[in-house]
Design goal:
Length: about 350
């Protein structure tokens, strides 16, 4: 009985958890970037950033393009699409890796997902897998038309939830010649079963709630949200999983951005809970690199998907020694190790 009560508590906690800072302010960086050593101005001869918008299925997408030092539009460069985590925005970890890759000679794009961040879409914070996969394809559409990009040398990097959606996009979209993930998070698996299977006992209850939320929306009623509460440091410190404890401090404190929120429409669960990033992994025939911290409690998701990737002869699982899931987002020594591996991987295949 105690176990069931604890499981129910964990499920409710993770359903209602919101990594929304109670005191978020507009970043001081002129491009709203919140990661370490971010670009503060576009200097000739150095890596530059350009904010762009484009339409994807009628929705205005907000993205940042990073170009290498001494960028020459008359030349051809390899390019990399970078997909952000669940609840994240392009100005956080996705922007960090996009900038680092540009420093290595790639033209990169990091965009806010449809319905999220600075991108359009109503109601706000719809979080459906099909949309996130289409967002990655949309970034590919845009960047391959960007002046100076060699469309035949296109790679993709997905971080956390963006990693799971990257795997799905790459299964069918063969424009991606090399596929990489960092701290991959299988959103459907976790929304369905709970993190580390902590929510198995409440699956049907949550599906019923999502169904009722959809019915309410269809009738013109309010839009209901999951993960729509604020979390204090004290509450975060008591969370049983390191990913959520450290995630609170990353998203709420050290790398807070006003557009970043883990809130999502409750009706999105109808799609999320039927989704699994690790199905059809045999369709990936491109070179595959999956990276994770050796101490990440989310590693089981990377390991499972990697083992199912039987369609490619060129695949590598790279563990970053001593790193947890969130630490791969920002700790300099772990970011450096991930970048060294990415430069080796994309350098070989792009």
């Amino acid at each position: 009985m105690k176990k069931n009560i604890r499981t129910h508590y964990l499920t409710i906690m993770f359903t209602t958890l919101s990594i929304i800072s109670s005191a978020q302010t507009k970043p001081s960086n002129p491009f709203d970037l919140v990661y370490r050593d971010a670009i503060t101005e576009n200097v000739q001869g150095e890596v530059n950033i350009r904010t762009v918008t484009y339409k994807l299925n009628g929705i205005t997408i907000s993205a940042n393009i990073y170009t290498p030092a001494n960028y020459d539009p008359s030349k051809k460069y390899p390019a990399v699409v970078v997909a952000h985590p669940n609840g994240g925005v392009k100005e956080q970890v996705a922007g960090l890796y996009a900038q680092r890759l540009a420093e290595s000679g790639y033209i990169t794009i990091a965009a806010d997902a449809s319905y999220q961040g600075a991108s359009g879409g109503e109601p706000r914070n719809v979080d459906k897998p099909a949309n996130r996969i289409e967002d990655i394809r949309g970034m590919a559409d845009f960047i391959t038309q960007y002046i100076g990009v060699d469309a035949s040398r296109l790679g993709v990097l997905g971080v956390c939830g963006g990693g799971g959606y990257t795997l799905k996009a790459a299964q069918t979209d063969k424009r991606f010649k090399a596929v990489a993930t960092l701290s991959m998070f299988n959103s459907g698996l976790v929304r369905r079963n709970g993190f580390m299977d902590s929510g198995l006992s409440t699956i049907q209850q949550r599906l019923q709630q999502a169904s009722e939320a959809r019915a309410l929306e269809a009738a013109g009623g309010e839009v209901r949200y999951a993960a729509n509460t604020k979390t204090t440091d004290e509450q975060a410190d008591k969370m049983p999983f390191e990913l959520y404890r450290e995630g609170h401090y990353y998203y709420n404190r050290t790398h807070a951005h006003p557009n970043s929120t883990f809130r999502y429409t409750l009706s999105s669960l109808l799609d999320l809970m039927a989704f699994d990033a690790a199905t059809n992994m045999d369709l990936i025939n491109q070179p595959l690199l999956m990276m994770a911290g050796s101490k990440a409690d989310s590693f089981y998701m990377t390991e499972s998907a990697f083992n199912l990737a039987t369609g490619t002869k060129e695949k590598e699982l790279f563990l970053i020694p001593g790193a947890t899931h969130i630490q791969t987002y920002h700790v300099p020594e772990y970011v450096a190790q991930a970048m060294n591996k990415l430069n080796e991987f994309f350098g070989k295949y792009l």
